[in-house]
Amino acid sequence: MVAGVLHPGEMGAAVGGCLIRQGHPVLWASQGRGPASAGRAAGAGLTDAGTPGSLAGRADVILSICPPHAALAVARSVAGFRGVYVDANAVSPATAREVGRAVTAGGASFVDGGIIGQPPAAATGSAGGGSRLYLSGPEAARVAALFAGTPLAAVVVGGEPGQASAVKMAYAAWTKGTAALILAARALASAEGVEDELLREWEQSQPALPARSESAARSAASKGWRWAGEMEEIAASMAAAGLPEGFHRAAAEVFRRSPRAAGADTAAAGEVLAALLAGRAETGQPPGR
Predict the structure, then answer these.
(1) How confident is the model over 81-110, as pLDDT tens digits?
(2) Quick check: 128 and 151 in contact, CB under 8 A?
(3) pLDDT of 280
């Protein structure tokens, strides 16, 4: 079974590495990608097919692992692919189904996916114990079998495309949504000149929150550019289910305002809070007292 990964970011390269360790050749497409992608692909042992079209002509299964806003464009880049296409992106069930329509129109089979956890190469514990790939659709079990015995546990959640994405959306609604909320709460205290008092109160009554807010700031700086799109997909998922969508529209704005850092440890909370508050002028909000 020849697999293809579009495109090997940190997660995609790690997932490709899992398949290589199982004896499956894994392709990627360097066209339009930078040296960082090339380095990750080489480190994981992926083989360059050159273009998405060439990859599609050689692969039996393609896994799309990219920022959510690019999911549909990536699917269209392999138009005419006739193998199994797995969209493992953080998208709403509706977006997943739209991707499915795009690839099945060209003759492919579609599997909806969603990844929870760290890149599996970094996962600790026994095989399948650190990260999970949720899958749904008629060919989900076939894809799950490719990852048997790897650090990425493949879990089939249903026969309908959209169900795996729904698991991812509901999970990230809490984990990443609350990261945005804690940053917004701390930014409010900063705007009103009572941040130190809030931190002292947290230390007394909610002792986990000071460290959690620092972790949220680091994540916002290193990953917020991608999480903003994910929050929009969650908001769309909520709206489609008849639930309030405003929580996650606001979370998307928090992550959009966050400064972009090169690494997870390069931004302190103060920098992120300042960027959140500076965004008031851009959005027409009145200054704080």
Answers:
(1) 999 999 999 999 999 999 999 999 999 999
(2) yes
(3) 61
Tokens of 22: 């199982």
Residue 125 pLDDT exceeds 60: no
For residue 109, give the DSSP letter: E
In the predicted model, is pLDDT for residue 155 greater than 50?
A: yes
**Rounded to 5, what percent of the chain is helix, strand, coil?**
55, 15, 30
DSSP string, 123-143: --SSTTSSEEEEEESTTHHHH
Q: What is the Cα gyration radius of the chain?
A: 20
Length of the chain: 289
CA distance 202 to 211: 10
Q: How far apart are CA 242 and CA 200, in angstroms?
A: 39
Backbone angles phi, psi at 160, to 5 degrees: -110, 130
Q: Please tell me the distance from the alpha carbon of residue 194 to that of residue 288, in angstroms, as a whole number.
A: 12
